Amino acid sequence: MFPIRDHNPSLTTPYVTRTLVFANIVIFLLTEPWAGGMVGLWVEWALYPIAIMQGSYLWGLITHMFLHAGIMHIAGNMLFLWIFGDNLEDQMGHLPFLLFYLACGLVAAAAQIAVDPWSDVPMVGASGAIAGVMGGYLLLFPKARVDVLALIIVFIRIFTIPAWVMLTVWLGLQLVMGVLATGGDGVAYWAHNGGFVAGLVLAFPLFLRLGGTAFWRENRGRPPHAPIDYQQSRVPTVRR
Question: What are the beta bridge partners of residue 151?
Fold first, then answer.
């Protein structure tokens, strides 16, 4: 299952979230052979753990967050950022949210490097930073309602569940796969885990300033404005 929307769009315009989505899409198109053709950016901008350990290609700690390895890779990442980024930006403010996002991406990269510091496999993608956004969202809005699309064999259903259910299940899968995976599937699970924890930690001062558990009680664990009640989408059952 994967999220398709939440029920609490932000009150303010999420300029940083939109800019990050736009920048990622533009850079993705520039690096695709069928679009911009600037494939050399893959060599220059990717994150190489072994190079970082030797003090080289240090800019890759930032630039790797804007490279993606395919349409499904960028589509999934930008969907998560679009859903969870706006409310966090609304509470943090534009510049603090941007710094938060980049800091989570740096911690995510550090976590992956710590697990395999001498790897020469390039690491790309915004998922570590976006995992931090998800961690911050879980802390501030654990009971926000999120619509998820579930694919169960040949059946398609849309469910509305609390954010904490979706996000904790996602984190649990990352932890399990981080322990079990041998690296052959090409997913940086420990970057996801490190980014998520960084998001929780870095959002905690804001959580305290907002009132801590009193903020939860006042808003029932949701963003502090009225939700949108979407009409339930009618997706027909596809029978065998």
Answer: 156
Query: Is the distance from CB of 68 to CB of 28 less than 8 angstroms?
Result: yes
DSSP structure class, residue 68 = -
Mean pLDDT across the chain: 90
DSSP code at position 65: G
Contact 227, 7 (CB under 8 A): yes
Residue 240 one-letter amino acid: R
Quickly count: other Cβ atoms within 10 Å of residue 121's Cβ. 13
Torsion angle (degrees, nearest 10) of CA 132, 137, 143, 145? -100
CA distance 222 to 235: 27
The tokens 């339930």 sit on which residue? Answer: 232
d(CA 60, CA 105): 11
**Largest interatomic CA distance in the chain:** 56
Model pTM above 0.70: yes
C-beta separation of 225 from 6 below 8 A? no
Q: Which two structure tokens, joined as six digits, stand for 53?
A: 């350990």
Which residue, among 119, 134, 30, 127, has the nearest Cα to 75 in the 3D structure?
127
Which ranges of the chain would DSSP assign to H, the alpha helix? 15-31, 40-45, 49-53, 60-63, 71-92, 94-115, 127-140, 163-180, 189-209, 213-219
Q: Which of 78, 81, 85 is nearest to 223 (CA)?
A: 85
User: Average pLDDT in the 94-106 region?
Assistant: 97
To the nearest 10°, the Cα dihedral for 65, 68, 74, 78? 10
Residues with Cβ within 8 Å of residue 237, at least 6 apart in sequence: 155, 156
Please give the DSSP secondary-structure letter assigned to residue 156.
E
